[in-house]
Design goal:
Shape: elongated
Strand content: 15-25%
Order of helices and strands: HEHHHEEEEEEEH
Structural class: alpha+beta
Distance between the termini: 64 Å
Number of helices: 5
Number of strands: 8
Oligomer: single chain
Largest sheet: 5 strands, antiparallel
Strand order of the largest sheet: 4-3-2-1-8
């Protein structure tokens, strides 16, 4: 009698364990993205203020003109103050060129070194799945998953190879245009634009 009760309980437990968990809706879009230094550079150039480069090179041009005038004035007057102003202008030009050319390269090198130290690789492999109301982006290297509702996204930008979705002032989701395994880049553009406009 006691054995029969145990068997009945075992059957009930087995039935509970075999209940099916409801399946999630499949993603409407899915894309694989590889992030390396070149992709970071492309993204940085895309999200930088549109007039920043123009203003920087404009400043360099103005300082070069000022340098020419100061050199001419120094040649005419030969004053110590004139020489100091020439040297100051040269330093400003060197700094402006450094900030436009060298600093971005050093920032990319620091990013690459950080990724290498953290993950043992110079690139990250992302998979981003887009559902009706949210997206989920996973990083292969550390198995992390970041889930974000579309209402928390503020902007879409595009570069030649990327869709960039802003989630905060300095944070963006990277989605490779040629990485779609579900859906297409063209249809995704329409989908995400509608989600951003519908906030």
């Amino acid at each position: 009698m006691g054995q029969e009760n145990i068997r009945e309980e075992e059957l009930e437990v087995t039935e509970i364990e075999e209940e099916e968990v409801p399946a999630l809706d499949p993603p409407k879009f899915s894309a694989n993205t590889v992030i390396n230094a070149a992709v970071q550079q492309e993204a940085s150039e895309t999200v930088a203020p549109k007039n920043a480069k123009f203003v920087s090179y404009g400043c360099i041009a103005l300082v070069v003109v000022a340098l020419g005038l100061l050199i001419w004035q120094y040649v005419m007057n030969r004053t110590t103050m004139g020489l100091m102003m020439v040297l100051l202008c040269v330093l400003v030009i060197v700094y402006l060129i450094y900030s436009q050319v060298t600093m971005p390269k050093k920032a990319l090198q620091r990013w690459e070194a950080s990724i290498l130290k953290s993950f043992g690789s110079k690139e990250l492999h992302l998979t981003t799945e887009f559902y009706e109301y949210s997206l989920a982006q996973s990083v292969k290297e550390d198995d992390s998953v970041n889930v974000q509702g579309y209402s928390d996204l503020s902007e879409l930008r595009e570069s030649e190879h990327l869709f960039l979705l802003r989630r905060s002032k300095q944070q963006w989701f990277f989605v490779a245009k040629d990485g779609f395994t579900v859906g297409s880049a063209e249809d995704f553009r329409t989908f995400i634009t509608e989600r951003l406009e519908g906030k």
